[in-house]
Write a sequence for this structure.
């Protein structure tokens, strides 16, 4: 039984190495995904800004058209002022002219504000474009690094998988099945040491009698709390 337990401990060491390699590959892929998400975010912001600029420009052109229309109206009313017959008509034309001038002044002020907003949006859009270009450059570099890293990690994983296959062959089928089940349910840790009567898997005390049996290393014993396979680990080690 002591030999079987030793095989399981070695198998778990191998499986932890495999998990570490898989985590490194997953981290590399996640890093690329995060970089792509940043690029997409910059593109989305740039698109929103472009749409806003277009809307502001359209409003500015509308104001220019309205100003031109009122300028023509003002000229027309000013021309008629010389030929009016009554004071009432004169005052009416004068009021229309003043109202048109006030309206145009407001339009011109709004147009200035629109131009300021358009310039600010263009500056922000240029900034987003620069950020996107920088992130795309980084993405290209990180992709090349990730591909090389993935190739190396895949080769290392393939080598370790062969070691695992060889080690799994020397473990009894029933014991291997239990080990794999525990590893799947217990975050990859199926075999744990017990130090001073405490299971290092769940950090719970095990019954003294069970601890004594564990120290004999004559049977495969599971933790009564987390069900992991336990082995005795002297404190000094």
């Amino acid at each position: 039984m002591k030999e079987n337990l030793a095989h399981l401990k070695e198998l778990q060491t191998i499986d932890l190495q495999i998990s570490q390699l898989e985590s490194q590959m997953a981290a590399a892929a996640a890093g690329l995904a995060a970089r792509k998400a940043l690029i997409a975010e910059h593109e989305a912001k740039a698109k929103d800004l472009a749409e806003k600029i277009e809307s502001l420009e359209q409003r500015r052109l509308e104001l220019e058209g309205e100003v031109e229309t009122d300028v023509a109206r003002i000229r027309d009313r000013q021309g008629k002022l010389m030929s009016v017959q009554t004071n009432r008509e004169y005052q009416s034309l004068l009021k229309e002219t003043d109202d048109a001038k006030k309206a145009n002044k407001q339009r011109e002020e709004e147009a200035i504000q629109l131009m300021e907003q358009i310039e600010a949006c263009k500056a922000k859009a240029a900034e987003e474009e620069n950020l996107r270009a920088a992130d795309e450059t980084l993405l290209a570099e990180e992709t090349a690094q990730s591909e090389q890293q993935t190739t190396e990690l895949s080769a290392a994983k393939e080598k370790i998988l062969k070691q695992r296959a060889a080690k799994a062959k020397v473990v009894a089928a029933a014991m291997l099945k239990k080990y794999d089940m525990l590893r799947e349910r217990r975050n990859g840790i199926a075999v744990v040491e017990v130090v001073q009567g405490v299971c290092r898997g769940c950090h719970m005390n095990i019954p003294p009698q069970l601890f004594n049996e564990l120290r004999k290393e004559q049977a495969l014993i599971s933790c009564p709390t987390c069900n992991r396979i336990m082995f005795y680990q002297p404190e000094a080690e």
In short: The first helix runs from residue 2 to 81. The beta strands are 191-195, 198-199, 221-222, 229-232.
